[in-house]
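ok, trying the design again with the full structure, not the truncated one.
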């Protein structure tokens, strides 16, 4: 399955449908845009970010527009927001394995892990 992600909104107890996500490849401080997308009704992408054939070893960044998502849901956020964009930098060491990078998020906290 390559590389996938999904986001759960822990404030409202639901998938983060409509959240904007951006995928970059990284090398040191340089980031190269690969794709931008919007999460579906289940807080997931409609297709893998990379399938098995296109996944490569290396370093990547997923950027999640947390503030934009919660503002769109009508949540009153302070200015400046505590969380605006959440960047998850991670490495792919084994391109033959599935990497799933979920995000659990509220306006005040987030966590992630390598899922299955």
């Amino acid at each position: 399955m390559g590389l996938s992600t999904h986001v759960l909104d822990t404030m409202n107890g639901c998938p983060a449908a409509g959240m904007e996500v951006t995928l970059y490849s990284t090398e040191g401080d340089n980031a190269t845009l690969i794709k931008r997308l919007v999460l579906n009704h289940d807080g997931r992408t409609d297709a893998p970010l990379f399938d098995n054939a296109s996944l490569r070893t290396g370093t990547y960044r997923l950027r999640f527009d947390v503030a934009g998502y919660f503002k769109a849901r009508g949540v009153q956020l302070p200015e400046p927001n505590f969380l605006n964009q959440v960047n998850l930098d991670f490495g792919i060491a084994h391109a033959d394995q599935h990497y799933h990078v979920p995000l659990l998020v509220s306006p005040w906290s987030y966590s992630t892990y390598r899922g299955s």
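Keeping the full-length input from now on. The two ends are 10 Å apart (CA to CA).
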